[in-house]
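Field notebook, page 707. I keep forgetting to write these up properly, so this time I am using the form the group agreed on. The chain and the ligand, 3'-deoxy-guanosine-5'-triphosphate, are recorded exactly as supplied. Prediction of the bound pose follows.
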Amino acid sequence: MLIESIWIKDLKDLELKARKIPKKVKLLILLGICQVEELQKASHILGILFPETEKIGLTVSAAIRRGVVLKEGFVLVVVKDAGISINVFSSFCADEVMAGKEIGNFFSDKKEGFLLLLTDGVKTLGENLVKEIKSKLEIPLIGAKASSYSFPAKTALFHNEKFDERGSIAVYFGYRDFKHFSIFDWKEIGREFLVTKSEGNRVYSINHFPAVEFYKHYLGDWVVDALPDAGVEFPLILSENGKKVARACIEKHEDGSLSFAGRVPQAAYVKLGCGDLINRKKTLETIRESVGGYNFYFLFPCMARWKFLKESINEELEVLKGKESIGFFTFGEYYEDTLLNETLTVVALEKNGSIKLENKKEDKKDKPLHVALADFLSRISEEYSLLSEAIDNNDFGILIFSNILGKLRCIYASKSLENITGYQIEDFILGNVNHNVIVFSEDREKINKLKEAFKREEKKESVIEYRIVTIDGKVKWIRSFIKKEHNFLVLSMTDISAEKRVEYLSLKDPLTGLYNRRFGVEQLFKIIERNKREGNYSAVLFLDVDKFKFINDVYSHNTGDKVLRIIARRIENSVRKADIVCRFGGDEFIVILPNLGTTRELAEKRALMIAERILEQVSQPILVDGKEFIITTSIGAALFSSEVKPSDAIKFADLAMYESKEKGRKKISIFTENLKEKIEKRGNVERLLKREVINRNFRVVYQPKLY
Ligand code: GH3
Ligand code: MG
């Protein structure tokens, strides 16, 4: 066997045992389960005893030897010279990219074997380093960061005489036959969050929550109090180079930020993770199956595994018991071009056949409660994922806001909002889009009023329709359901533009954009009902443009249309907000004036005022196609409370309008019973005359005129 290991109690023991090692060994690797200062002393001892041998070493929190966890002393790995090429190259350069270039270039000609990379645990982040090495390297790269028991963590490493708290050591093993793998068995819980501010491995805020507040909000005070330790049990999981990686919290800062064991890029999506306790049995089987049939193993489990799995880590190592297996609990595992966390990374050397797997009896021990909780979280997360996928593929969107340090901030935006609004999810979460940006200007007041009502807690839920302006300037109609509960506010957005278009077409007159006759009659029904309840008077104005045919005949129908549109706008501008202007047909309009007062006199006065305003506005000169027109209109008004039918109210106003025409046009007449009588009488006379004409009861009699 090429590699052997020795356990050493202390520095004295090191001197004693090291003296017995033949001087001709190729490489010594010292794992110091000790403080930095002690490792430095150990490196001196090895330097004196083995001046010609390559020597490397690093601090570790706990070592693994022959499948057993060791929590004190040293483990000395002795690599003998047995014909395979072994080279060591180190870089103690502070710049990761430079160090990566140096190491990568040094080993770039290697065609077989693998590179073992060992770095310090705190000062070297590692991502840029491995990326750079791997860009030059053809062979596999496996490695681990130094770890430490001290807090704040202090790690160090040495290569021959060089000793530092920062640096990278690469050992090339020219093996042809080896195997390597990495087991990642952390499960994502719940949903994605956006890293709103970070720098390198320091995270300032996630979904706007200061990092510490984020853990507090989702995992509670006790986890925050136990940070950074508890952080390893709930790491952030994100994608790096297309792989899922976990980033465990390693430091809690005064300003509410947290440092992680690896980079957490700003604007990255992260999920919280927890150990996959449900599939624990499967993981153990994978380990057992993967490690069989080799003479020697390097293995690097993440510190987080130890913290999370505690004593059950022994189950993972059981399969290596008695086999020459060397490793340590690390602050981060290097695997090809990625810095991993929370995995178990293994390299197995010297194949010696296959391992026989005994069938183990299933552990029937009662599962602790936290396993049940992990089970529950996992199921809920799966259901949540399905639900959010369904929302993302629908034509409605969801926004969730939360009160973060006294301010309502968006913490969730569904992907479907991108289709509805054109804005990205990040725009909502980062607050680049809020209602002031997206809501159509005319509807902002309506939204602000509602916002106030929610703020004053007068409302807890509501449905509202309003318009938004999409990123490309389109106006869309939206229906929102809003609900506030505790510190949360949820808002749905459904695009109802199509619905509104149909509604528009059935209610509006296409030429003028005014409401149509049908809508007017419907509104009259409602107003009459309301008058009954409130004892109010209302009125209908009936307008007919004077001598309108003349414009059509002398100019064109097109000119006539333009004039009608201008008249429509003028009528709209002359009435109150609550009044309803409809095109009745041809050159006729009706204006419904609700709530004019509780006495007939007052109502009549107000109706006349509005009618006069219309008369005056309409008769202002109209400019169409370069020609000026003076148009007037005749108006009839009918007042009512609750005693009429809508069709009668309109008919009475129409009769009054005829009276205005009779009086010479550009007049306002109010319908009265007398007027009704007069018009009925005239109608009767007209009818009788017509009948008598048909019956030929008229004769022309000429009377000579005599002077
Ligand atoms: P009066 O003072 O008695 O109301 O005279 P008038 O010429 O306005 O007569 P009346 O109200 O009976 O005629 C309305 C005319 O409006 C008849 C028709 O040619 C015209 N008209 C109806 N609908 C439209 C339309 O959609 N566009 C245009 N340009 N003209 C229309
Ligand atoms: Mg007319």
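OBSERVATIONS:
- The longest strand covers residues 186-199.
- The chain has 21 helices and 38 strands.
FOLLOW-UP: compare against the apo run.
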